[in-house]
Amino acid sequence: MTQFFLAMGQVWETFDIVEQEFLATGETAVVLTQVRARVRATGRELSFPILQKITVKDGQITEVHPFYWDTQAIADACAASAPTD
């Protein structure tokens, strides 16, 4: 988890959880999260949903497995030049 958060800090200037909806709870939770973020390298901002499975053991998050996020929108926001259509 430490490496994950270090990598996130290198990519994102801001990464705000705007809203979360817990679709299933227990030791395994399914969560739909709305995120607003700004890319550190480009300054571009974007909003996107993440659907993820979170595993909890002994009250601690032990695994976060994203099932969906808009990888193309994220790649475009991180690209050195603006995408062209």
Task: Please describe the structure with a list of short key phrases separated by commas or semicolons.
85 residues, alpha+beta, Nuclear Transport Factor 2, Chain: A, 4 strands, 21% helix, globular
Task: Compose a concise summary of this entry.
This protein has 85 residues and is of the alpha+beta class. 21% of the residues lie in helices and 56% in strands. It has a single domain, classed as Nuclear Transport Factor 2, Chain: A (Roll), CATH 3.10.450.
Describe the structure.
This protein is α+β, with helices and mostly antiparallel strands and 85 residues long. It has a single domain, classed as Nuclear Transport Factor 2, Chain: A. Helix content is 21%, strand content 56%. The chain contains 2 helices and 4 strands; from the N terminus they run αββββα. It has helices spanning 2-11, 71-78; strands at 12-24, 28-39, 45-57, 60-69. The protein has a 4-stranded antiparallel beta sheet with strand order 1-2-3-4. The longest helix has 10 residues, at 2-11. The protein is globular, with a radius of gyration of 14 Å. The N and C termini lie far apart (37 Å).
